[in-house]
Design a protein that fits this description.
single chain
Length: about 425
């Protein structure tokens, strides 16, 4: 197989620059099957997908001016899940491979360094890995439909492109906005991350969101904003009451009608200023809904893309050696990268599979890591009538999860809780 190399897409550029020895930006997607995973069959499935997903099977390389990704000659071996989820990948490991393929009992999981792809691209890869595994193990004939690709087909040009270069506006828009309240707490030791997953009936969640006239994402963001506000009110060290803002990653594939297996997501911050007065739950729902709708129209998203891409295209910046670029990106990230939101809610949406696969799959999960300077995050995925909300934290304080899930229960949405707590 001929080696290929890929420039980092516009969203991917920041992640190698800001990574630390004890932190980098990872996320995990997993499929839980009805039967135990056969590691030998899983490794065959991984190898079969190597030529079909050249932008996924990559290593991180360092050039004079930029980092870049290089395709692998051999697929990585699947490993038994051996540590805490989302344990940081060292630079040495990233130079060998930017993904981990893991199994444990009935579960197949893939962890991605975020420079490779976003949640949508990661879920597409997982679904195809699961499809190939089931076709080998169960002899299924799985049609290429939806996110399932033909493994014998050559990669399409649109799957490997940097779509950020295709959808900018004539000018960019300002990034200026108020800083948000920062969640803090006593950090956990080592790399352990608490993961609390709430399992909700999707129909009840939809019913409550529609009763407020909002989307599920806006509804969950509103409930989370209320939980963060309550945390701030009890925080003796908070000082003045800062803005409550939830960061929502937006899948630009839907916005611009473009497809890629690389990163194509931008985040927006939505919320309110508690110093302006008190807000009812209904008012917070409407605020979140209308702000999200206004911020994600194609014109504003195109302006955001242009703001980011202009820097990447700057001749002066392109000629700066990588070590100086890295210092500059770290400085910008420390000033503005994580100061404008309280935490993320990343909603994958509804996962679908070809009908022949459905009897073999129990559930899907989607977990994003914590950020470097704030300790909580939240991710959501829906499968087969159930919505799985995973809250991750790197601190010992579980108050935010308690407030969030208890509010959902108080509003008539039953929640089953799972935790990896120790």
């Amino acid at each position: 197989m001929r080696k290929q190399w890929y420039r980092l897409d516009n969203a991917a550029l920041i992640f190698p620059a800001v990574m630390r020895k004890n932190w980098n930006n990872l996320f995990r997607v997993s499929a839980t099957l009805k039967d135990p995973v056969d590691p030998a069959v899983l490794n065959r499935a991984v190898s079969d997908l190597l030529p079909r997903f050249p932008t996924v099977f990559v290593r991180l390389r360092t050039g004079f001016f930029w980092y870049y990704l290089e395709s692998l000659d051999e697929a990585p071996a699947a490993e038994e899940d051996y540590a805490w989820p989302l344990t940081p990948m060292s630079r040495r490991k990233l130079k060998k491979c930017c993904i981990r393929i893991l199994y444990y009992r009935n579960r197949i999981a893939v962890e991605f360094f975020h420079s490779v792809t976003d949640g949508n691209g990661g879920m597409t890869f997982l679904q195809n890995l699961t499809a190939r595994y089931l076709s080998l193990k169960e002899g299924l004939k799985i049609p290429a439909e939806g996110r399932i690709l033909d493994p014998a087909e050559a990669p399409k040009t649109e799957e490997t492109r940097d779509c950020f270069q295709l959808c900018g506006a004539k000018r960019g828009i300002s990034r200026a906005e108020e800083n948000a309240y920062r969640l803090r707490g006593n950090p956990e030791e080592g790399f352990f991350r608490h993961i609390v997953t709430g399992i909700l009936p999707t129909d009840r969640l939809l019913e409550k969101a529609h009763a407020e006239g909002v989307t599920v994402t806006a509804y969950l963001a509103a409930v989370m904003a209320e939980a963060v506000l309550k945390r701030q009110q009890k925080d003796a060290n908070a000082g003045r009451r800062r803005h409550i803002k939830i960061t929502i990653p937006v899948n630009l594939r839907k916005t611009f009608g473009l497809e890629t297996l690389r990163n194509f997501t931008l985040a927006v911050n939505i919320g309110f200023d508690p110093e302006l007065g008190e807000y009812t739950p209904g008012e917070i729902c409407r605020l979140m809904h209308h702000q999200l709708a206004a911020e994600t129209i194609s014109q504003r998203m195109a302006g955001r893309v242009t703001t980011n891409v202009q820097l990447q295209r700057s001749l002066a910046l392109r000629l700066v050696p990588l070590p100086l670029k890295t210092l500059a990106m770290r400085l910008v990230y420390s000033i503005s990268g994580e100061s404008k939101g309280c935490l993320n809610i990343s909603n994958m949406g509804v996962v679908t599979l070809p009908e022949v696969m459905e009897p073999y799959v129990e559930r899907f999960d989607f977990i994003i890591g914590v950020q470097y300077s704030y300790p909580n995050n939240c991710s959501v995925v829906t499968w087969n009538g159930k919505t799985y909300i995973s809250m991750i934290r790197g601190i010992r304080d579980s108050e935010l999860e308690r407030l969030f899930f208890s509010t959902l229960v108080e509003r008539g949405i039953p929640v089953d809780i799972e935790s990896n707590g120790r």
